[in-house]
């Protein structure tokens, strides 16, 4: 990029087309004669390391999932039933965070939906993240509205097809003698079921075939058999009046759908709208409930109970559930009936080891980075760090992306080991900052007391010392003072979060005490605490701590 003579913005191609716009551009070009000061030029001049950074982000769904073939095949073996018009067993998927559960389940459902379209087998997959949608009302409302939307789209498609058929009839009648409906070739298809308007009688008997069933839904099923055939051949309609009546019926159905508001209705009404929306059409519905444990934790197992007993009441459709969880114990809280129905099939996603993580990173890095942007030790190191955690692919990918960003920021040409180590520290610090920022005020005060003690050179801090400083901090900001016992509990919680390290040491005949030390970087943690408006009111901390030591 040349930095001496930047080209002015081109105005000629917009001139005369949009007056206001071209004036603005011209004014900018003429009035803003100062050339840019190169703020971005330096940054742009560095050879970019990334080819496509997006593929390293959590939102990206990979097309390939190395080391998950067994799990993916098992899911597919269970779900193939949907393509045969049967109800697949419910599936529970377990595994620790970052083991590819969501990515694999989404991959399989995408394949399922596209295969169902290929063979014109109606099958819908709906994904819900129960961390976000965490009550029965919200889950049912979201599902109801999704299915209403799908039903509306299907109705629109069918109405269009029927109207095309009416137009064909017009043309046919114009060209030939008006056909006597009675003379229309009989094809034996029925004419009463609500979805029969697109049954084509293609000759496939769903029951007799183990290949995908042929049912309604695809637009070409309304195509006449041959150019010369009567447009109503192979349809359940005898004449245009019947076609018109069916269009009216479909439009009335469309009108009758009522979207569920996000709050305010009794739950049984929401359930009944959801039920009707699912049962409107013949199809297999797969409902994927990610983080299903969060739903059970927040609002019990009613939703799962209702979803799992639906099949006995549905007339046209069938529902199957895929639950995804990283908490192996959540089924202990389920009603035994729900537990056995939900866990018909269980698939476990084990943590990745360092070699597997290496493969995963290698696959992604081929697309994410420019050639030669990575030194040889980068991927093994990212994999090793993430394997130490608990075999978390998300962490491994985050490390690689962050290392790349740090290298890019320092205008390095390649990512080297140093960048990975810096990335590891940065991610850890970001985690600490987030945990500390979201602590309750009382825990923040306890942590602040520990920081003040450490900053004043006190090592092997004991609970009594923390409690004394904590009390003074509470007085300073007018907060309630908890008992020493509660403060001891809060210290244990900070220990569990990895913010402090509290070990019980025996003092011989003086009994046992806790020795507390900080496990996180002191300055950054203090800065996060002081960014809390309540704690930032504590002025002039040093003398006040000194005073405590002098007492
Ligand atoms: N085998 C794999 N190949 C490629 N990428 C993978 C693989 N496994 C996981 N990933 C990637 O790792 C990240 C985390 O995966 P995913 O969200 O599927 O994990 P999860 O098991 O559902 O975790 P959580 O329980 O925290 O939701 C995603 O970016 C995903 O694309």
TrEMBL record:
Annotated GO MF terms: ATP binding
Cell cycle listed as a keyword: yes
Keyword ATP-binding annotated: yes
Record region (Disordered): 1-38, 170-242
Gene3D superfamilies for the chain: 1.10.8.60, P-loop containing nucleotide triphosphate hydrolases, Winged helix-like DNA-binding domain superfamily/Winged helix DNA-binding domain
InterPro entries: AAA+_ATPase, Cdc6_C, Cdc6_lid, ORC1/CDC6, Orc1/Cdc6_arc, P-loop_NTPase, WH-like_DNA-bd_sf, WH_DNA-bd_sf
Residues given in the record as ATP binding sites: 99-103, 352, 364
UniProt keyword terms in alphabetical order: ATP-binding, Cell cycle, Cell division, DNA replication, Nucleotide-binding
Compositional bias per record (Polar residues), positions renumbered to this chain: 197-207
Assigned protein family: Belongs to the CDC6/cdc18 family.
Identification of the protein by name: ORC1-type DNA replication protein
Organism of derivation: Natronococcus jeotgali DSM 18795
